[in-house]
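Kindly review these tokens for lecture notes.

. . .
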Amino acid sequence: MRRILVTSASGANGDGFGTVLSFSGSGELAGPFSDDRRIADPRGMSLGPAGDLIYVTSGDDRVLALDKSGTVVLDSGRREGLDGGGGTFAPDGRYCLTLRRRGTILALPPQLDTDGQALLPDRAVPFPRGFGFGKESQLYLSSGIGPTGEGDNTVTIFDRDGRIRNPRLVADPELSPLDLMIAPSGNLVVSSEFPFGSASASPTIREYDPATGRLVRVLAPDSAVNFARPRGLRFSPEGQLYWVGRDHVVAFDYSTGKFLGVMAELRRLNGQAVLLLE
């Protein structure tokens, strides 16, 4: 039976729940996925390559791996100043996460038993948001706006050695990225809120050609849903594209772009990342 997991921000990042919440596949709230206190103001979340562990970037400056019952089985230990954000797995099996203060990406071994390795120089971008790895291991990093207004609203490409291949792949005046994924088609899909932080901001998913940065299409939710403060993206095995934000998890049929509606709803959700767990 499918479950929808959502990391819910708290504290200065939003008046949310500060934990990982679990919903049924039909959108009913089941409660916290785990009651472990090491999960605090969680951000990134990704299923491990073997499909048995859920990796969570905790606001407690640590990374945790939980089994499907919500029990913590691996803990990186608290690392002062880590300030981790979104996370995903590299082709070589390492769990990678953005380091927001340092403006780079850290790769940790799946056992979480070493300090890991920075994939890019510090301040590679002003404020890293989502990222993904292309077919040739190139790294696509969305550079968004940070809490103090710094940023450049584009997607930068780095090669496998961390060198910049293209500093501004995307030149879209209506892009302010918050997450990025590689679609099954190979295109880049980017969660966007423009202008970032504005009460009148437009939430969209913007799809780009990975070679040219050309805008392919724009997906937008039904305005009646009042979807706002968009964050994480996730593809389902059936080709649905899930998207989380304030109060809602919504979905699209990726092949057609059709808006499928609300998959889960909870006031003060302040969702950051979404994961589909079978």
About this structure: The radius of gyration is 17 Å. The CA atoms of residues 239 and 255 lie 7 Å apart. The first strand starts at residue 3 and ends at 8.
